[in-house]
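Good morning,

Attaching, inline, the backbone tokens for the sequence recovery test we're adding to the shared suite. The designed sequence is right after.
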């Protein structure tokens, strides 16, 4: 075989390929839009879906809006208002910083934005092409804030387009789980999500009331029965970690659904923490009085606070993973906090059994 020539992949193709890694699925698309609304300082976010989001995702906020001169930069790759230098990455408090979500959404769906800032007289509707270039703009009447509409997600990626529709139920469940995570940890913002199937009525899938603490959010999202089966968990470690949240009571016998609710947050950012999740389940099994121990999955809603130089969130484009400095000792601190909460229940149980 002759050695083939090596050539650069055309930029538009590179963009299309990479965008599929930023917008992995339905859930990431909605997550990115919700994060943008929260980063814009919104106190009201309304998520409207059609066909569970596969036909239309519309996220409307009452945040700061987008000013005229930024209409184009909005959808350009690696353009962000949230980060100006690498040093900023250390004390970042926004969800976004990579400037990839909107440019990637343009590459994998049809994107239309309508927005208005405080000081502009009218709103503007802007539609974008697949490269993120402005296709057209027109004036519209609207209140301050931004609405991003994403139509026919993954249309340009035939395999993913079909897969999303084939597994819509599962993908929608994933989306709701992510929304629930943001709804639990976000205080002071009303978040509403509705869905419409066919010409049927709009169904409310989730709503929060802009309450001020995590427990009230848990009650709003999951109901008071779930909240009553929880006990507060607080802890600190020598590494500067502090945590606050709720876990299942040791004595609770609960349905399967409740047991699957494990939400971890790192400085208020919903995140996957498989090792913490594993530690949670293993520790719980040491204490629980329920019959079949292998089926037991305690519920958890835990916000871990760490100094910003102790972790790196920039590991995957969707920022759902974190690299933790001194992870082992953080895990031990977590386990200790769990034991402190559950140990009294075991003592009580043993006393009862001995009587
Ligand atoms: P990032 O959030 O990482 O900056 P995005 O592609 O998600 O990247 O957004 C690009 C930029 O567009 C943001 O930095 C922000 O300035 C602006 N933006 C996006 N969504 C909104 C919104 N809902 N309200 C106001 N500005 C927004
Ligand atoms: Mg963003």
């Amino acid at each position: 075989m002759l050695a083939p020539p090596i050539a650069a992949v055309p930029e538009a193709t590179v963009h299309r390929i990479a965008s599929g890694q930023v917008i992995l699925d339905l859930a990431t698309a909605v997550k990115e839009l919700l994060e943008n609304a929260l980063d814009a300082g919104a106190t009201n976010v309304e998520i409207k879906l059609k066909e569970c989001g596969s036909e239309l995702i519309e996220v409307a906020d009452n945040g700061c809006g987008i000013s005229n001169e930024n209409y184009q930069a909005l959808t350009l790759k690696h353009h962000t208002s949230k980060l100006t230098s690498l040093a900023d990455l250390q004390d970042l408090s926004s969800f976004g910083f990579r400037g990839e979500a909107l440019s990637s959404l343009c590459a994998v769906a049809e994107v239309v934005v309508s927005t208005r800032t405080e000081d502009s007289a009218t709103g503007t509707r802007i539609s974008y092409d697949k490269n993120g270039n402005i296709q057209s703009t027109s004036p519209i009447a609207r209140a301050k804030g931004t609405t991003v509409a994403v139509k026919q997600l993954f249309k340009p990626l035939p395999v993913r387009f079909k897969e999303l529709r084939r597994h819509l139920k599962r993908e929608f469940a994933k989306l709701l789980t992510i929304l629930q995570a943001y709804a639990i940890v976000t205080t002071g913002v009303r978040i509403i999500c509705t869905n419409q199937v066919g010409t049927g009525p709009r169904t409310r899938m989730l709503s929060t009331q802009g309450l001020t603490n995590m427990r009230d959010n848990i009650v709003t999202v999951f109901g008071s029965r779930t909240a009553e089966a929880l006990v507060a968990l607080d802890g600190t470690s020598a590494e500067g970690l502090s945590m606050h949240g709720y876990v299942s009571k040791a004595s609770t016998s609960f349905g399967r659904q409740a047991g699957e609710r494990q939400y971890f947050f790192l400085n208020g950012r919903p995140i996957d923490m498989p090792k913490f999740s594993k530690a949670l389940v293993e520790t719980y099994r040491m204490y629980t009085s329920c019959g079949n121990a292998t089926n037991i999955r305690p519920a958890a809603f835990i916000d871990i606070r760490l100094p910003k130089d102790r972790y790196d969130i920039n590991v995957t484009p969707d920022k759902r993973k974190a690299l933790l400095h001194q992870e082992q000792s953080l895990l031990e601190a977590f386990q200790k906090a769990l034991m402190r909460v559950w140990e009294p229940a075991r003592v009580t149980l043993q006393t009862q059994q001995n009587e």
